[in-house]
Design brief:
mainly alpha
Amino acid sequence: MEPQQGSYRLIALVVASTFFMALLDGVIINTALPQMAASFGVRPVELSIGVTVYMLTVAMFMPLSGWAADRFGARRIFLLAILVFTLASLGCASASNLSQFALARAIQGIGGGMMIPIGRLIVLGHARKSELLQATALITWPALFAPVIGPVIGGFITEYASWRWNFLLNIPLGAIGMTLVALVVPGQAGKRERVLDVRGFLLTALALGMLLFGLELSAHARQNWQVPLALIAAGLACGTLAVRHLRRATNPLLNLSPFGVQTFAAASLMAGTYIQVAIAATPYLLPLLFQLVFGLNAFEAGSFLFIYFAGNLLMKTVTTPVLRRFGFRTVLSCNGTLVGLSIACCALLARDAGYAFIAAVLFFAGATRSMQFTAINTIAYADINAAQRSSASTLAAMMQQIGMLVGVALATLLLNGSSWLRAAGQVGPEDFRAAFMILGVMAMIASLRFLKLPMDAGAEITGRAGS
């Protein structure tokens, strides 16, 4: 059934609010780790399991989301995912030791892993092709803003209340989100005949779990690289087996045909992934630069990122007109080059550079990042048909999760590698300059691959068809 015109806006806003809760939760606790360690009587480094286990369960259960939405109905599973996430947040807040906290975070990750791809699927199902650009712009803002403002909010709550409130806040937010979803999102019958591809799920979950855990370990490895490299190799091997199975299975867990669509492949597998890696690495490196090199405290460093946030926010108002005026191919290639340039410009940031210059670079980086992120996430679905939507939404969410983690791992590797080459005992400004320059060049080179898209790519979305 054709979606009613304009029906997507309220649905997209409701879905975006739940996305924000889930994505914020993934980064908000980073500044609270020392206080949490003190509560549990462990060393702060041991709390990394709370971050890692959440990340792993999110990735491992994402592939299941498309099947569950098809089998039982997208709204029903979306509500269940929010409920699981909310109750697990209560478990995190009430945990009295590290084991209880890790278990609650694992369950929370299951909810988060199901929530994001299914929410995106719901919005896609209620937006026409001509409305896809505005709908995507609405549901991508949480992914842009949460990593930037999460550490600031988490630091403030931890400093002036308690780290437990970082999780308790999810209780009313989750309740409100479930109520809004129940009221706004239309129900849809599931396909009871859809059988679960158990082998496909196990292979995909193992591949993602080992690959992402290996990348996470590699970001913190010093001398012992055997374990992370072994996990990455095992993850790639399982991934190869998973792809072979999914291509041959009669009723696969994931339909891989979206990767055969040029626009989806460009956005989710090729150039888009490389640029998203660079985009994800930047808000990770900037707070470290401000604290380790500039000597700012966590709150002051987070406050600088609000300028980055402002660039994201302002660009939202002009992204749609720009894409309609110039088209996806031109914007993705030209703005992608500007994304790389803005990241490379971060190499020029220094304590004595002047506030106005620092603010200009951060604003520029945030603005170009916002437009590229929205354009990539929109063009991905330009040529996806209704039968491919479920798998395309899951595949895109999986690739985004991988891109985010690879970005952080690569940034850490660049910092450590540069300091090792200098034979320095600790990371210095030269290492940040090297990391920003390499990431910037990578983004610029990747953006040129968008020139392979046809001039009219996504024309139906932008309204440029026949122009």
